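Progress note, sequence design subtask.
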């Protein structure tokens, strides 16, 4: 990807938006960055998904997690159940490995459709459930 001023500004906006929404409502990677990488940077679905995962590789959510951890319960774990987080994190690593192997075997159009349908289902459930 050529790093023009426009590209750098676009990356800054995507990064800030994904970070803010991650801290605010717990979304950022797939829901925000992947579609924006495709729409504004012209990346393929595979490239966008890989880039989104690469962005999350360092502890980008450390400060947001710290805020949730510090809140409530006198700072004793706050809003995070660390046992649950550890179990999900380990399985997330395993699932991410398996999912990436599968995704790389699927053509771009099909993968885009799977991604879009998944986002629609999640959006509809969020909008219409109590």
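Output:
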């Amino acid at each position: 990807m050529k790093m023009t001023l426009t590209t750098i500004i676009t990356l800054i906006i995507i990064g800030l938006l994904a970070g803010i929404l991650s801290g605010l409502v717990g979304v950022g990677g797939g829901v925000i960055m992947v579609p924006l990488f495709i729409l504004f940077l012209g990346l393929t679905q595979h490239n966008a998904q890989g880039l989104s995962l690469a962005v999350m590789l360092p502890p980008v959510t450390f400060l947001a997690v710290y805020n949730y951890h510090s809140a409530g319960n006198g700072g004793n774990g706050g809003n995070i159940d660390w046992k649950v987080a550890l179990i999900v994190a380990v399985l997330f690593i395993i699932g991410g490995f398996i999912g990436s192997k599968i995704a790389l075997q699927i053509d771009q159009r099909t993968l885009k459709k799977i991604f879009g349908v998944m986002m629609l289902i999640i959006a509809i459930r969020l909008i219409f459930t109590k």
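The two ends are 43 Å apart (CA to CA). Work on this subtask will continue into the next period as scheduled.
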